[in-house]
Amino acid sequence: MNFLESLKNEILIGDGAIGTMLYAKGVSLDANVEHLNLVRPELVLELHREYLAAGARVIETNTFGANWTKLAAIGLEKREREINLRGARLAREAAEGANAFVSGSVGPLVRVKGDERELSPAETAEIYRRQVLALADGGVDLLILETFTDLGQILCALAAARETGLPVVANMAFLENGRLAGGADVERAALALTNAGASVVGANCGAGPLEVLGTIRRMAGATALPIAAYPNSGFPEYVNGRHVYRTTPDYFAERAAEMVANGAVLVGGCCGTTPDHIRSLAERLAGMVPVARSVVAAATPVEERREAVAGAEGFLAKWGKEPVVTVELDPPKGFDCAKIIEGSQTLKTAGADAINIAENPLARIRMGNIALGHLIQQEAGIETIVHITCRDRNLLGLQSDLMGASLLGIRNILAITGDPARIGEQAGATSVYDLNSFTLIKLLADLNAGVNALGNPLGRGAGFTIGCAFNPNSQRMEVQAERLNKKVANGARFVQTQPLYDLARLDEMLERTAHLGVPVLPGILPLVSERNCEFLHNEVPGIVIPDGIRARMRGKEKEAGVREGLAIAREFIDSVRDRVGGFYLIPPFGRFEIAVELVRHIKGR
């Protein structure tokens, strides 16, 4: 019996949800589902047999999250192979004597919250390689990659899966309107997976059967490969402390029949589907055969929406004509905005071009910077650069607040991941990190193009000039430069760096970033005392102060420390002003008068 040959002649019925069904059997919501392969194998075996009895011809292993990134988060990374191997053998045992195939379930990786470092394609493929080899050794007939929302990640998983020689089903979870979080649409994803060697392509999870049906229709016109459909059971409703899925087995089966009529040949269920759903599915699809299909789409990649390279607008309009100076001021900890308004007005008079407003820096509570940025622009008449972090809002909240920022006339956004909440002062606060700085920049670029993260039109573009951060003090600046390449490719149009004190590092930074063609503003943080100098050097990530400067600050306190710190900053500025187009000033402790001195020096006033 051959899986791919079977798909040519019949409709194969897949199984339904694994995780939600195991929880429904009494497993604690805190338990790791994949670990049950080792500690409660009889429960996993029982569920496999229930799906087979309901009519499933393709059952999945209980290994969806059995990859290193998910297992490491709960201390089970050393049992990765064992969990996958056992998961495959349990499904194989259940299928013994049945006319059924066993598919090894492989899900997406997760990233460590607060960690901006992205796994390289080679690292990603290696993680998947270990999982799929264990599943293959356990005796699966095929591999099913499912619930992926990142096209790059599933392509890495597909490359590893193909090394086993087994057929590979590649299913993606599309957002509303058939779009992935990274911007690719159904047609582009189907083409990419086809070209990368998938055996079957399809969609799973999503917003329910009707949404997946629309995706399948589009996918069937974009590729000649067999199509898989594994919708979930609609949106869950929270009832008496539990999430309950309302889609009935009969409704689910009717929509599945439409999927088959539109090209699907492998049909099962995802979240919320039960053996009852699969039973209705098997009965409704009995006797149906694959429909004849023709690829009607040209199957050319649809370019992701990205803002055009911004012209010289706003505070950057002077770039290349005179030095551009931005100054960072921290929002107040309470409601009194008088000091920051006064500082902004004074800095504008001195010649500053924009005011940076951080967002809860060091995870400490301060006034919301979007509203404050609007107030500064109105009261002080100077542009603001609002820092937006990924720490405090989920994807939904970020989009809403950014649209509100555009409505209030905020035009400059600095996209940063943000310090984790645990380092701050608010006990019980947690970090969100639905996005990181890279994906936030993508989101901002989409908003500029007039669409939200789902690809839905917004009526106009947001009009943001997107900025990003760069750390030139890293021991491996080439890694930081590579990250910056990605940020600029995603839509960043200007760069502000961590504070610099070392001329050699600035020279290397300029050399490694020259090809990007975007303004780079080196950070200048004036020192005010020996204590301040040593604290920054020893305790603040991303700041390195050369020994010579530390020696100059030794014994300097109070006004003497401020004078020496300003002298060091002026010397640095004068040494590089012919090689950079501007500066990003970060006055210590909110002392804007220190920044005023440097703005006047830079502007020659």
Automatic annotation (TrEMBL):
Q: Which UniProt keywords apply?
A: FAD, Flavoprotein, Metal-binding, Methyltransferase, Oxidoreductase, Transferase, Zinc
Could you provide one GO biological process annotation from this protein's UniProt record? methylation
Q: Where in this chain does the record put each Hcy-binding domain?
A: 1-285
Q: Name one GO molecular function term.
A: methyltransferase activity
Cofactor list: Zn(2+); FAD
Q: In which pathway does it act?
A: One-carbon metabolism; tetrahydrofolate interconversion
Is Lipoprotein one of the keywords UniProt gives this record? no
Q: What is the superkingdom listed in this entry's lineage?
A: Bacteria
Q: What is its EC number?
A: 1.5.1.20, 2.1.1.10
Give binding positions for Zn(2+): C205, C270, C271
Please give one Pfam family short name. Answer: MTHFR
PANTHER family annotated for this entry? BIFUNCTIONAL HOMOCYSTEINE S-METHYLTRANSFERASE_5,10-METHYLENETETRAHYDROFOLATE REDUCTASE (PTHR45833:SF2), METHIONINE SYNTHASE (PTHR45833)
Q: Which NCBIfam families match?
A: PRK08645.1
Q: What is this protein called?
A: Bifunctional homocysteine S-methyltransferase/methylenetetrahydrofolate reductase
Please report the organism this UniProt entry assigns to the protein: Geobacter benzoatilyticus
